[in-house]
């Protein structure tokens, strides 16, 4: 008896969540979002929310940054419309990458290898209630400690929907193959990344190297880019478990066809786009996005060199795998690929 009651309650809760999430979709077209009088609730502060600021600015004259953003959003919507057949419903699991800033009304979907450490640092400053002042003073590993920032998946369905409707949602993306080569270099060519070597490297070598040496099999520390590509395009890989977030596609990490991002920032225009987000949030005088002086940054030329070792057959398979990220964010097919 108790069991069935609990079961019914559980079912009711599930249905409730389902209903809420569906509601978000029905109201999600930009014009329907009710912002006018509905003052959003940022812990009592009466200032305008970043989303209101964005929508109000859109009605006034447009700056170059705004025009660029509008173009990116329209492009994204168009690609979503023409490439996704059926809309599915969001689940809390889909929202694990959305970092919440309740103080300022921001939702940031983090994509590894796209300045996400610096964005997490900035959000720790913004949500830290005075605990942090300077983003770069926060150690990188601390920025990635799960408990230090809240993600949208931790909230109830009603709270999720309220935030999806009223917060400024933003994402930063990067040329997909540059991001991929950056992930490979960082996780497989640096001797300190032993956790990745053990977890993924050993598996890749076992499966994709013809005559592996014992030491390589044990340490997994000498995976070639070619072997990494074999691993990515092998259907078995994703059957067993989802891709690691460092090489998972933005499409799968941030669901840009289900969540309507207000700002699509790009790594290629990182400083400018970051400044714009901080300005919309009204905090551009309090916190500055760290400017990176990294000299080891992966560039397009570098990516081209890595792809020289990959046969056209595998280039094509890999391009198909990442195709949606190219299309959604208007990245052209790299000229160095041999897709014929
Ligand atoms: C405002 O936010 C606080 C804390 O998140 C919450 O307890 C309160 O119910 C909210 N008020 C309204 C009117 O939504
Ligand atoms: C897409 O990319 C092309 C080439 O880089 C550029 O000329 C165009 O303005 C971009 N379109 C949008 C909507 O961003």
UniProtKB/TrEMBL annotation:
Pfam families: Sulfotransfer_2. InterPro entries: Carb_sulfotrans_8-10, Sulfotransferase. One of its GO terms (cellular component) is Golgi membrane. It is found in: Golgi apparatus membrane. Its EC number is 2.8.2.-. It is a single-pass type II membrane protein. GO terms for molecular function: sulfotransferase activity. Belongs to the sulfotransferase 2 family. This is Carbohydrate sulfotransferase. The lineage of its organism: Eukaryota, Metazoa, Chordata, Craniata, Vertebrata.
């Amino acid at each position: 008896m108790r069991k069935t009651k609990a079961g019914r309650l559980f079912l009711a809760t599930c249905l409730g969540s389902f209903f809420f999430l569906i509601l978000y979709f029905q109201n999600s077209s930009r014009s329907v979002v009710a912002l006018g009088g509905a003052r959003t609730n940022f812990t009592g502060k009466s200032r305008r929310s970043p989303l209101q600021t964005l929508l109000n600015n859109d009605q006034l004259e447009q700056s170059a940054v705004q025009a660029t953003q509008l173009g990116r959003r329209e492009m994204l919507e168009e690609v979503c419309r023409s490439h996704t057949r059926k809309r599915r419903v969001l689940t809390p699991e889909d929202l694990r990458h959305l970092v919440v800033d309740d103080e300022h009304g921001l939702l940031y979907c983090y994509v590894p290898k796209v300045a996400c450490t610096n964005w997490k640092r900035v959000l720790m400053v913004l949500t830290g209630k005075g605990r942090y002042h300077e983003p770069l003073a926060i150690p990188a590993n601390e920025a990635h400690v799960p408990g230090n920032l809240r993600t949208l998946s931790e909230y109830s369905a009603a709270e999720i929907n309220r935030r999806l409707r009223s917060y400024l949602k933003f994402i930063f993306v990067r040329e997909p193959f540059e991001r991929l080569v950056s992930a490979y270099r960082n996780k497989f060519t640096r001797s300190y990344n032993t956790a990745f070597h053990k977890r993924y490297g050993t598996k890749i070598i076992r499966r994709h190297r013809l005559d592996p040496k014992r030491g390589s099999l044990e340490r997994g520390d000498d995976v070639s880019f070619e072997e990494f590509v074999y691993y990515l395009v092998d259907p078995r890989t994703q059957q067993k478990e989802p891709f690691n977030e460092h090489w998972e596609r933005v499409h799968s990490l941030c669901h840009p066809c289900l969540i309507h991002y207000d700002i699509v920032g790009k790594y290629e225009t990182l400083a400018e786009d970051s400044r714009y987000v901080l300005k919309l949030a009204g905090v551009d005088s309090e916190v500055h996005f760290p400017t990176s002086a990294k000299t080891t940054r992966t560039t397009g030329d570098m990516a081209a060199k890595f792809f020289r070792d990959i046969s056209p057959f595998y280039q094509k398979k890999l391009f198909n795998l990442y195709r949606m990220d190219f299309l959604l964010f208007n990245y052209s097919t790299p000229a160095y690929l041999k897709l014929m």
